[in-house]
Each structure stands twice: as structure tokens, then as C-alpha cells.
Amino acid sequence: MCWKTLLLLLLCHNAQASVPHRWGRAVLFPAAHRPKRSSSLPLNPVLQRSLEEVELLYEFLLAELAISPDLEISIKDEELASLRKASDFHTVCNAVIPKHIPDIRRLSASLASHPGTLKKEDFERTALTLAYAAYRTALSRGHQKDVWAQSLLSLFQALRHDLIRSSGSRVSP
After folding, report:
1. Which intervals of the chain form a coiled coil (predicted)?
2. pLDDT value of residue 173
3. Please, are residues 128 and 147 in contact by the beta-carbon 8 Å criterion?
């Protein structure tokens, strides 16, 4: 009887070890993993898979962006906007990154308790959320400016902490 229990425990341990860790932890950007049924948006879109795509993302960010009253982000440059990667940029900016203070605070809290370094796509999305928060901070006035600035600061600290962790160096805060 004892050997059966031992075998069962060993089997359970092996089964638990084979489950990917991504199932056991919360997803930082849940909208990327569950697109709306009615849309044709890609599941978990990623913008940077090569150096050329990193440079293209940089061009998108340097180009003039338009943010509509309903918070829809678009690239004003028609030539850049017509590129295939611009569609992924549009999807990430409009369907994945958080745009409201409670959602950004939730993301910041999740980032603060996130073990290890961020995956490439999570880092990318956090950086885009940081850029969006910077834009909203610049446009805000009074108390709203303070709220957006605090969100901007917490996202910056999370990215800085991740960069320090990934480089393996120890820098005091």
C-alpha cells in the first residue's frame, strides 16, 4: 500500500512540474489573451520580433499620433499607417494596453509583485502604457495631472526595476 501512495505522489509531482508557469500566474495584459468574439483581432499580438520591427515601432512613436475623444490611438502618417505592422500597433494600443487610471494602477500593482523579468511582449506593452500615461499627463490639469503623473511614475519604476533585474546589476532606488 505504501508503494502505491509513493507512486501517486511522484506522479502528481511530475504532473505539477510539467504544467507551464504561465498558467499559474496572473496575466499582466488579459485583453491580449482574450479578444472579443466579434473581432478579427489577433490573439496576443507582439510588435517586436526583430530589430527592424523595433525600429519601426520607434518610427510609429516618433510619428504624430492621434488620440480621439474615445481614446482611440491612430498614426496620422498615412504611409506608416498603411504598413502591416501598423495594424498590430493599432491593435495593441487600442485593445490591449490599459487606458484608464484604475486599470493602470492594477497593472502597476501586478508589475510590483511580478516575479522575475518581464516577457518581451509584457515589457513592450508596459512601455506603450508608459508612453500613453505620459501623453495623458501632459494634457491633464490640476488633480488629474497629479493622478496621471503618479501612474506615470509607477510604470517608470516598474520598467526600471525590470531592466535592473534583467541586467543583473544592483542599483539602489
Report:
1. none
2. 52
3. no
Tens of pLDDT, residue by residue over 17-63, are 444 444 444 577 766 655 555 445 555 667 778 888 888 888 888 88
Rounded to the nearest 5°, which phi and psi values hold at 4?
-70, -40
pLDDT score for 103: 93
Task: Give residues with Cβ within 8 angstroms of 56, minimum separation 6.
Answer: 83, 85
pTM metric for this prediction: 0.74
What is the mean predicted confidence (pLDDT) over 53-74? 87
Residue 102: all three cell numbers together:
484604475
Residue with cell 511580478: 114
Q: How many CA atoms lie within 13 A of 119 on its CB side?
A: 11
C-alpha cell, 33: 489573451
d(CA 100, CA 1): 58
Domain limits of the chain? 48-96, 98-166
In the numeric block, the cell 509531482 is attached to: 13
The residues, ordered by sequence, that sit 6+ positions from 48 with a Cβ below 8 Å of its Cβ are 54, 57, 120, 124
- For the chain, the first-to-last Cα distance in angstroms comes to 56
Mean pLDDT across the chain:
79
Residue 64: partners with Cβ closer than 8 Å, 6 or more residues away: 75, 76, 77
